[in-house]
Structures are given as structure tokens and as C-alpha cells.
Amino acid sequence: MRLSRYFLPVLKENPAEAQIVSHRLMLRAGMIKQAQAGIYSWLPLGFKVLKNIENIVHEEQVRAGHIPMLMPTLQSADLWRESGRYDVYGEEMLRVTDRHGRDMLYGPTNEELITDIFRSHVSSYKDLPMTLYHIQWKFRDEIRPRFGVMRGREFLMKDGYNFDVDKASALHAYNRHMVSYLRTYERMGLHAIPMRADSGPIGGDNTHEFLVLADTGESEVFYDSAILDLKFGDRVVNFGDWDECAAIVKEWTTPYARTDETHDPALFEAIPEARRKSSRGIEVGQIFYFGTKYSEPLGATVQNAEGKPVPVHMGSHGIGVSRLLGAIIEASHDDNGIIWPEGVTPFHCGIVNLKQGDDEADAACEALYAALTAIGLEPLYDDRKERAGGKFATMDLIGLPWRITVGPRGLKNGVVELTSRRTGESEELSPEAAIEKIA
Ligand code: ATP
Ligand code: MG
Ligand code: MG
Ligand code: MG
């Protein structure tokens, strides 16, 4: 992409309405524009990162054996009356009526709709296990939308639902989700800690939230710092193997990590003091086993091996796709702007032409652009007639991992400058060597 042809409306001033750094940087980098309170347009740069995050989520869900699909945003109120949630859901639900007077709602979540699909088509245990998921916009009329996309009213969520014949297999689905989530967040450069969370009126310990540590997080969390040493890495997991998944879950749930709702001071005090940490965290996902809570009222049953009809055991598993942009920026920025982890960056590198219009500099930039593109990388070429300082500031603000600076002086010696956004270190290299380093 050439910057002269792109739409990147960066702001020079700090927007007054933004209270936290990720919101400020997303506005300044021209990634989003507020349409109404808690509702955002995704400008090209923001949209690109959103899609990258979405793709990682898809890849990891498919890797775990889960099946992608898409359900609508608008749902029928009648289905929610069947589960009993239409009246109890409260003010967060946006209710609408169509021209025929039929009650509808903008889905805040999809347990009812997915269970309706399931009960219409599946009737035998032989079709199980099955996990269906989608990535779709949700609406929750949050009382205090704030922090940009972090607590929006309209937001993008991955929500997946497992259907299993009994509790044991549903708990394997739970474990499978935890394992796939660990890998998902790590690919985004995040350390998201699974924390035992509150399962509300259902009870039990079958829910975990994934939290990214950040001062601006809305949750209070308590953990053993030993959990920060765990790394998923690129282990190859057999997601069909119950024991293998259970062992990984055990590894990550053994060190103490809880949100304030389930915090147990006695257990916490037992951790060596140096490892006892409390801080704030951003909830970027949650997994939940809830048994037959929806399958019973909605009549989602299958015949088991003995030919007996049994309600299916379910769980739902969410990832805050749009919230993740904010969480990643909270975890990865400096005074000059965003520092994108390689896994989600909107462009792989920036090319800064110090002397636009100089034949040699222009040609060198074009050659770099073509060479990077040819090996499947996406560069952002700042080909505007601007001062170098302004170009550097823009590149730092939008946070691409690498910047290649090209100017007549370096070209005389056959070199360009390669700068790492994260370390700030620069080196002079031949264009070929710079490309090799980025690739
Ligand atoms: P919170 O506690 O932050 O209100 P939640 O527990 O109500 O979130 P879930 O129902 O668990 O949310 O939804 C799954 C995921 O969707 C959450 O873990 C979070 O990452 C994301 N999410 C929830 N509400 C919002 C929101 N208003 N804006 C952006 N993302 C959200
Ligand atoms: Mg909520
Ligand atoms: Mg929550
Ligand atoms: Mg939650």
C-alpha cells in the first residue's frame, strides 16, 4: 500500500475523550471513529488489524476441530422466551419491534439460537461431539460504554458452543477450548492468564476467564507469578486426546490465578510472598461449561447408545475479538505509539522515502516495495512529499514492527536503514539484507 493512496486519518492532538492509552492511540492512528456512544466505524487500518485477529481466532478454532458458521445479529424474542431469558436479561438487551409488531432483539450472545439449530437437525449421539462457532457482532447496551472498543455496545465476539452426550465429554470440550485459547492469545503476542471465575447461579468451577494484565483493566485479579513463566510455544496438540488436553489445562490451572469474585485469601497466602501478585486485568475471553441449562428448556436431546433420549451437555466459549485490539495496545506501546506484535500487525514493514521525487531514492523504494510484495509481505510505503520527521512520527504511531528508511546519502554507499520498532535499534544494510531480516 502507498500511503499517498491510503486512508489513514491520523490525529496530531490527543483526543480529549480518550481516557486510556489504547483508546487514544487507536483514535490518533486513524483506526476507528466513534459513530455513537460505544459504536465504532472501523477505518482501514483498524479494520486490517481486526481481520488479522479474526483470522488467528478462526485458524485456532479450526485446528481444535471446531466448525465455523454464521448466525444473524437479529434474533426472535420468542426463542428467548422459551429459555426464560427474555425477561431476565435486563437492560443490556436491545429490543426492537418490526413493522408487524413482532419482538426481536439484537443478539448479546447466541445460546438460544444455536440450540434451536441443533435441536432441528441432530438427534443421535453418533453425531457428537460437535462444536459450532461464529464470529459475529453483538450488542449489549452497556450502562457505561468506555475505553473505546474495550467496552463497546456493539462489539465483535467469537462465540462457540459445544454439544456433547454427557458431562465427561463436555468437560473435554471445555479443556479443548482452554488449550486452543492459550495458543490463540500467544499468537497475538499476549500473555492471557486463565483465571478461575465466578459461574454465578449455576455454581461449580467450570468457568475460566482469560485476563491480560494491565493497569487499565476493569477486573481485580490475584495470581502466582509462576504462571507468567508458562509458555505454550508451538507444541503440536492432538485435540482428540482427552488426557493430553487435560494435562495442559492442569499445567495452566495449577498456579493460583483468580478474579476477585472467586479469590480465596487463605489459598493466596500459602503462595511464597515474592510470587504473590495482585493487579488489574482485561477480560479477553471466557469459557463455560453449563450442562443442560439450555438443552432442557429448549428440548435439545439426542438418543444415547442405549437408545434413551438425553439432553445434551453444552458449554459456551467466547473471545472478545474487537476488545483484543485495545488489550494488545495496552500491553504493547510506548510514548510514541503502538508496537504491533508480528502476528497481528496491519503491515509487515514501513518504507520511508527521505527524498520523494529524487530519482534514485524513488527507484530504490519501488524496488524494495516490489521485492517485499513478491515474497508475500505487505509493506506500507510512505511516498508522500513530507518532512522526514513527520514520516517517522507516523510510522512510530501506527507501530509497524520494521521501518526501512531510504535516502540518497545511504544509497550512495548501497545501504538503507532498518529500524526495529520494538527496540528502536537501527542498522545500515543493503536492501537485500534488510529484506532477508524482515522475512
Ligand atoms: P465483561 O465482564 O467485560 O462485561 P462479559 O463477562 O460480560 O464481559 P462475556 O459474556 O464473557 O462478557 O463475553 C465474551 C467476551 O466478549 C468477553 O470475555 C469480552 O472479551 C468480550 N466482551 C464482553 N462485553 C464486551 C463489550 N461491551 N465490549 C467489547 N467486548 C466485550
Ligand atoms: Mg458484561
Ligand atoms: Mg465478565
Ligand atoms: Mg465473561
Automatic annotation (TrEMBL):
What is the top-level taxon of the source organism?
Answer: Bacteria
Q: Does the keyword Cell division apply?
A: no
Q: What does it catalyze?
A: tRNA(Pro) + L-proline + ATP = L-prolyl-tRNA(Pro) + AMP + diphosphate
Q: Provide the protein's localization.
A: Cytoplasm
Record-linked InterPro entries: aa-tRNA-synt_IIb, aa-tRNA-synth_II, aa-tRNA-synth_II/BPL/LPL, Anticodon-bd, Anticodon-bd_dom_sf, Pro-tRNA-ligase_IIa, Pro-tRNA-synth_IIa_bac-type, Pro-tRNA_synthetase
Name the PROSITE patterns for this protein.
Answer: AA_TRNA_LIGASE_II (PS50862)
Stretches of the chain forming a coiled coil according to its record = none
Similarity annotation = Belongs to the class-II aminoacyl-tRNA synthetase family. ProS type 2 subfamily.
HAMAP family the record matches: Pro_tRNA_synth_type2 (MF_01570)
Q: Which PANTHER family match?
A: MITOCHONDRIAL RIBOSOME PROTEIN L39/PROLYL-TRNA LIGASE FAMILY MEMBER (PTHR42753), PROLINE--TRNA LIGASE (PTHR42753:SF2)
Q: What is this protein called?
A: Proline--tRNA ligase
**Gene this protein is translated from:** proS
